Amino acid sequence: MTDPHVPATPAPSIGENIATLRKAAGLSQNALRLRAGISMSLLSKIEIGDRPCTPAVAASVARALGVTMAQLNGQVQTRNSGPNIDAVRSAVRRYDLPHDRPLPAPETLSERLATATTLRAATRYDALALELPALIDDLTAHAHAVHDPARWGMLADAYACAYTLAHRLGQPDLAEIVVGRQAWAAERAQNPVASAGAAWTRAGTFQSAGDYDGGMAVVEEAISRYGAVQADQPSAVVALGALHLRAITLASRAKDASATAEHTAYAHRLAEVLPIGDVLAHNLTFGAGNTHLHVLAAHVELDQPQKAASLADGYTPGAGLTPTRVGHFHLDTARAHLAVGDRDASLRSLRTAERTAPQMTRVHPMAREVARVLLALHRRSNPELVGLASRLGIAP
User: Fold this and answer.
1) What residue ranges in 160-293 does DSSP mark as E strands?
2) Are the beta carbons of 286 and 241 closer than 8 angstroms?
3) Does the N-terminal or the C-terminal CB of the chain have fewer CB atoms within 10 Å?
4) What is the pLDDT of residue 79?
């Protein structure tokens, strides 16, 4: 039986795309590496698949080539990204049109939104794509008819789910549209937490595009605006803490160690406010565990893989961390182990990421990069690796 979560066709590696785009632009490797500010050795290894292309390097190369990150990465079209995504796109498009059908009961909307939130956190993108179109339609109808700020807040949360779906299934144009819709709904919700969540999502589009300075501007403005409301409710602490975690990722990818440390300190202090560990609220997860995971990933981005591997060693993600966050932890651990030369540990972490969050791992650019490099480093004789690579859409 065909697996709907596997990329429909093997996708070229980022390195192969870089080589193709570089040659199309008439650039030598030396000319491109000078424009991108990277070494000749690194560029050569990325192009032939002996070194993974980190998000920060990809952003520098994309700017040097004058292309988008989506063009550099290549679109990973999965078999479940067709009609269902089109239905999501249609629902998002109809945000301001009247609905003439009877409105569903409010309690059913709450239950359906909770289901969508759970599916997103569990990386069940196939089921989420089926759930979202009617949910967005019904929430939109309710929000327009009832004029209750709480309904607009629910719609903002549904749009947050739609952003994750579009982002993970290689639909950057839809993701950009959804970000605007989420901010529009959050404004009508008259809820600072909903607006902070919308800012977190918007910063994600800058992160995906490799515009780390732009993303930091969005996050810092949101922290300044909403930071004063965090003291008296856990959901506000989660939203503010999540903004600092987003800033950790953006700053580390921009190689700004000072800003990374500053936002890490703020995140640690906020995590102490939550006595119950990590909390999921409005599709944002925050607490001591998720802060640990972001600091680990930041060490990878700051070219400190040994520190990242040390943070991963013996660490078990605790309760409150959703499969999407635990999956990211194992992906970043795989990157760290690969960077320090422990290929066996890297493969083990990659396999654990797939078991934890299969649909996310099988479309995640860094999962494919790590697997490609492991294959290139003379591991094609490993049946386990070959099978994993096939599930990631990589031709051995």
Assistant:
1) 279-281, 284-286
2) yes
3) N
4) 44
